[in-house]
Structures are given as C-alpha cells and as structure tokens.
Task: inverse folding
C-alpha cells in the first residue's frame, strides 16, 4: 500500500478552521461593516441540534443567515451554537462544522462549498479519500463581478 498525502482532508480541516476562527472573532467583536454569512448545513447530520419544527420544515438542508440579530454564539472545536430569530421566535441551534455544506460572506464575495460523496459503506475509497471541495474566493478589491469557483478535482490526477 502506497502512502499518500490526503489533500482533501487537509483542505477540509483548514477551511473548517477558517470558519471556526471567523465565528470566534464575530463572537468577541461582532460583525464588522457589511459582513454577514449564509451557512447551509445538513439538517440530518447526527450532531445537528435544531427544533423539531425546523427539521420538519427543512428535511435535508437549511440555510441560516447571521446578520442583523443573533445571540448566544458559542464556538467550539467541533461546531458552534447560536440563537437565531425565525419569525420573531428565537431558536437555539447547534451546527457541527462537519454538517456545513456552504459558508458564504456575500459582502466580500467569499464562499466555501464542501461537497460529500454518498457511499454505501463507511470505508473511504482509496482513490478518492475525500470528496471534492470547491473554494470560492474573490475579494471585492480585485474588481471581479462574481466569485470564482475553483474545483479541487481539477488538480487531482
């Protein structure tokens, strides 16, 4: 068996670490300027904690917006807890980083997309140890009209 560098897993951990750092800073200092986040996550992930009515309404995935009002933001190494407003009803949520499908800050045209491959068993396929992850990043100062999506699969052999 040949040992290889698992770039997919390394990228996933690095990008989830980036999300953790951003949320930690927001928890300490608040959202600066026009920054806000759209976070799409898998509501069926076993460690997601949301109200039953939310999981009934969003069976599969849900996008939350962290912008004007949020409370009780607690960031850990595995995920984050936050209270958000749903039609004037504050609801606590817990979202593990592994459940996140996309993280987007449209104010600076930055986004991350984590893609997973459905497999029938829990063992990793040696030829594709980690699903592709697209990195969408393009700061406004680069004067690009849209964020560029770069698929990591294009760099794999």
Result:
């Amino acid at each position: 068996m040949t040992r290889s560098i698992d770039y997919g897993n390394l990228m996933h951990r690095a990008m989830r670490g980036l999300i953790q750092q951003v949320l930690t800073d927001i928890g300490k200092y608040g959202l600066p300027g026009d920054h806000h986040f759209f976070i799409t996550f898998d509501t069926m992930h076993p460690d997601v904690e949301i109200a039953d009515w939310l999981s009934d309404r969003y069976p599969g995935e849900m996008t939350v917006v962290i912008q004007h009002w949020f409370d009780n933001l607690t960031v850990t190494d595995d995920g984050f807890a936050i209270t958000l407003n749903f039609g004037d009803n504050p609801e606590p949520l817990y979202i593990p980083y592994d459940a996140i499908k996309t993280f987007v800050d449209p104010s600076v045209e930055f986004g991350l997309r984590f893609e997973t491959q459905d497999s029938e068993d829990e063992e990793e396929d040696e030829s594709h140890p980690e699903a592709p992850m697209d990195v969408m990043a393009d700061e406004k100062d680069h004067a690009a009209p849209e964020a560029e999506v770069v698929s990591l699969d294009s760099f794999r052999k």
